Amino acid sequence: MSESHYADPASESCLVPAMMPAMIDAIGASTDSVLRRSGLPKDLFARLPAALTPQQFFALWSALDDEVESNGDGPMPLRLVEQVNLEYFDPLIFAFLNSPNVTTGFVRMASYKKVTSALRVKVDTSPAGLTVEQWWPAPLHAPAAVNLAAHAFGVWLVRTATKIDVQPVRVTSPDLPEHMDAYEQFFGVPITLGSKSRIEFSAIDSHRPLLTSNDSMWRAFQPVLQKRLTEIDAGASAEDRVRAALVELLPAGEDSIEAVARELTVSTRTLQRQLQAEETSFQSVLNSTRERLAHHYLVNENLTNAEVAFLLGYEDTRSFYRAFRSWTGMSPKQARVSYVA
Fold this sequence. Notes:
341 residues; H-NOX domain; Arc Repressor Mutant, subunit A; six-stranded mixed β-sheet; 11% strand; globular
């Protein structure tokens, strides 16, 4: 019997990742033209990550697909995958790369996906291998490029993390795209027609270890990611929602109220009013969040101070040292000793 892992969305919304405009520029497409084609606000990419309805999200991807097609550059999903690199911080990438093996990576990605998209994801494991299935709730119908981009991204992650040219056993799609030869060359197998969008890996490939795995980083970050999952409902306080957003944004170096407001899809002024109503401020929540996380990370002796500084969003360890001493009156080293004592 197979073991199934389901990831249901918390709301019918889709986040546009902060790395998207950089990737669009990298493939030679025009962000302004893409937004004009999609009918979305012309300043959308200036306030990322932003939440869109599924229909708006599909319009954005369709516009990008049309833009790339008009330039004669081949399948848009494959062009985008060519530009992904490990310099981008994205929670999905982080969750996968710090996993011990391919299967765990996909399960973790599926778990976190529900805070970024209305997409449904199911990961099945069996003696035959691994299946990642995705679908959109009725009556939504995503363009083929949206689903194929997700599968191409998953294959890129596997190949990047294993340093092996892993080829899926099967790729199915409810809609067959153009440029089938290019997709077959990338995946190593032809895309077949199916009722669900699905990608399958062999048992050997599903158990391959990831060379990028860092269990210390994951064990330190996982509890706060889990907290993010439990705080996405509208009933959470403004302080809780800001704290949860910071957990996601800090490793990317984002620590401004503008960045948090974009993620929470509210105006900066509205967010300030909500925090004031709770008798706190953004700076206070930022400082307390960093201090709490610092204590949490330092308890884990396998994390270096540089890694802790990264997770807290500091550009260098010296900035982290100064901040930590201002909070506690101790250095990180002294704090580690006190935790052990």
